User: Which sequence fits this backbone?
């Protein structure tokens, strides 16, 4: 074994209920390298990471650390070795403050009690050194997904580890936050820290990685050195088929002329997170909503669907004024895929059948008052097929599915009923490249069937790809609309950041 290896995992096997998820997997990490781990949704990436970090026990295989065999049976074991992990399903605890989360189980003590002053100061120092938009005393519950992810990252960074594992660290971050994370990653690498990096955002991976391991269906598909990392090769190895190439640097927008489906007038938040928001979406139109983290986009769509109550303003659907609440929205034909899918999008302990049924009880057949279980099952099969949920097992608990497939369940349950309006907030966070294209195809299809679609996204490429028209929010206001013009990623970015581009 080469002596510059920090971690080596050999012949790793893992099955869940007899179904193999990892088979004879080899994975190693050199000192001071950024090593990307790639593969489709469900390929086994998170499972491998959970084995390395002691969350799951492996069925077979060996792990070595700095050349010596080790047994990692708990997360504490892995912290002791000098490994820390930023998990895909964030491990932050919402009722605690940012500082309490960062220093969880390693709180500074004074006379046997937690020294909160010191803890807040130490957290502030970390925040300053990484320049994150956070405060030590904020309760995490009050933060959006992007900021929660930053807390999770801060927690990982606070350990002074030799190996830092990041499972989809940027899935809820906007370009700016992601950019500062890349700076941090490069700095850590220069200091000799090794990083395992998992992401479905391919440009990031190409930029950062020194080496890249690809898993396919739980087996090793390739290990590529830096000079072997060629985008086309990586994608095709991952998905096992050829991809069409699209030019996504700019797009000519075209307005839709269908009847107005949704009209929002002067919508204003009681907590001032957005104010005086007015816009329309037509039947058959896909409206993209861009903005930085904290711009108020999520809050606006939550108020339209009725999860939160706006202080003033009107929401009209096909000309009818609504007093939005989720039950009414479902009845009226509005679908909503929230940003925080784990908390709001699905119930982890329930199967796909039950999760799909939850928003569709009004269309499932009944015998007397009992719901028809066959019809319920058929509906879930329709959802599985509509969006290719894997594994295609309607009875599998959604909480045990891979991150990307959980997201598909949250979207899939809306595709089995007639919708007038579909609102999706970061629809492809954590979704692999092949499945992303499928989801865009589904949104296009919905629009051509006359559904109005609102897509909130921090992924500029995605906004360009799907939108017919784009509005940009900044600090709670709509600051720009892009309509019937050629729009580029740079133009959207400039509007998001509040800098008007110089005309050339
Ligand atoms: N606790 C569990 N119980 C049962 N099955 C599981 C469990 N954890 C993972 N699996 C299954 O193992 C397979 C691999 O999942 P894993 O989460 O490792 O995928 P992934 O590569 O991280 O995908 P993604 O890109 O979507 O995050 C999936 O089929 C998943 O359903
Ligand atoms: Mg995963």
Assistant:
């Amino acid at each position: 074994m080469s002596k510059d290896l920090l971690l080596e995992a050999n012949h790793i096997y893992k099955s869940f209920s007899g179904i193999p998820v990892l088979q004879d997997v080899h994975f190693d990490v050199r000192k001071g390298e950024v090593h990307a781990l790639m593969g489709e949704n469900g390929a086994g990436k998170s499972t491998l990471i959970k084995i390395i970090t002691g969350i799951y026990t492996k069925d077979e295989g060996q792990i070595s650390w700095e050349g010596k065999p080790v047994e990692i049976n708990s997360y504490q074991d892995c912290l002791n070795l000098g490994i820390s992990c930023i998990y895909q399903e964030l491990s932050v605890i919402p009722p605690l403050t940012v500082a309490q989360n960062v220093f969880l189980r390693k709180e500074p003590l004074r006379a046997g009690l937690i020294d909160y002053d010191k803890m807040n100061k130490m957290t502030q120092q970390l925040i300053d050194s990484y320049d994150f938009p956070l405060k030590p005393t904020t309760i995490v519950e009050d933060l959006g997904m992007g900021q929660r992810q930053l807390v999770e990252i801060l927690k990982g960074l606070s350990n002074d580890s030799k190996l830092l594992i990041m499972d989809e660290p940027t899935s809820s971050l906007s370009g700016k936050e992601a950019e500062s994370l890349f700076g941090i990653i490069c700095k850590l690498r220069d200091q000799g820290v090794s990083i395992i990096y998992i992401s479905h955002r391919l440009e990031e991976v190409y930029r950062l990685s020194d080496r890249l391991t690809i898993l396919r269906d739980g087996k090793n598909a390739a290990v590529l050195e830096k000079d072997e990392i060629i985008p086309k090769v990586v994608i095709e190895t991952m998905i096992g088929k050829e991809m069409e190439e699209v030019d996504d640097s700019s797009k000519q927008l075209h307005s839709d002329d269908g009847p107005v489906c949704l009209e929002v007038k002067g919508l204003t938040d009681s907590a001032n997170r957005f104010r005086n928001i007015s816009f329309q979406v037509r039947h058959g139109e896909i409206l993209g909503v861009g903005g930085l983290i904290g711009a108020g986009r999520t809050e606006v769509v939550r108020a339209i669907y009725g999860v939160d109550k706006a202080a003033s303003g009107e929401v009209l659907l096909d000309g009818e004024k609504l007093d939005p609440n989720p039950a009414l929205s479902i009845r009226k034909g509005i679908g909503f895929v929230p940003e925080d899918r784990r908390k709001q999008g699905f119930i982890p302990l329930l199967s796909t059948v039950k999760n799909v049924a939850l928003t569709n009880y009004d269309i499932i057949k009944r015998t007397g008052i009992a719901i028809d279980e066959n019809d319920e099952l058929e509906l879930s099969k329709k959802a599985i097929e509509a969006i290719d949920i894997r594994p295609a097992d309607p009875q599998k608990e959604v909480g045990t599915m891979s991150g990307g497939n959980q997201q598909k369940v949250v979207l899939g349950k809306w595709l089995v009923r007639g919708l007038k309006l579909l609102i999706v907030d970061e629809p492809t966070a954590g979704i692999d490249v092949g499945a992303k294209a499928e989801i865009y195809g589904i949104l296009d299809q919905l629009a051509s069937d006359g559904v109005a679609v609102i897509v909130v996204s921090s992924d500029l490429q995605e906004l360009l790809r799907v939108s017919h028209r784009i509005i940009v929010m900044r600090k709670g206001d709509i600051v720009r609309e892009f309509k019937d013009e050629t729009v580029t990623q740079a133009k959207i970015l400039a509007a998001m950041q509040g800098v008007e581009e110089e005309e050339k």
